[in-house]
Amino acid sequence: QVQLVESGGGLVQPGGSLRLSCTASGFTFSSYAMSWYRQSPGKGRELVATISAVSGSTMYADSAKGRFTIARDNDKKTLYLQMNSLKPEDTAIYYCKRLTGNYWGQGTQVTVSS
Q1: Is 51 exposed, middle or buried (0-12, 13-18, 19+ CB in 10 A)?
Q2: What confidence score (pLDDT) does residue 42 get?
Q3: Is the pLDDT of residue 113 over 90?
Q4: Which of 1, 10, 11, 13 fits a 20 to 30 Å CA distance from 110?
């Protein structure tokens, strides 16, 4: 029933920007905090950012702070991650996840390379 579908990944040059989207269904989206994670083969799974349900307060990993912005549109049931000033080390598969429960999307690939 719960479904999360990421999109917006692709190939970008260092210093470029990309916006990821995650469309949710099967639950009351506005009632749940949401997170973005990323995973690369040479590294483990890393929490990138989280946004609260009602207040919309945000928190970021140090690696993302100042460059990434997490946002949500509850009317569209969509979670966003705006990524600016991208670096090669940002290359990973990016996943969205509901904070509570073990629900993940299929992921979207982000590659930062010249």
Answers
A1: buried
A2: 81
A3: yes
A4: 1
Look up residue 104 and give its DSSP letter. B
In 3D space, the residue among 23, 72, 24 whose CA is nearest the CA of residue 52 turns out to be 72
The candidate with the shortest Cα–Cα distance to 83, out of 103, 57, 97, 63, is 63
Task: Render pLDDT for 47-77 as a digit per residue (tens, 0 to 9).
Answer: 999 999 989 999 999 999 999 999 999 999 9
89 three-state secondary structure: helix
Residue 89 has phi, psi (to 5 degrees) of -70, -10
Report the distance separating Cα 30 and Cα 7, nearest Å. Answer: 20
Tokens linked to 75: 């009317």
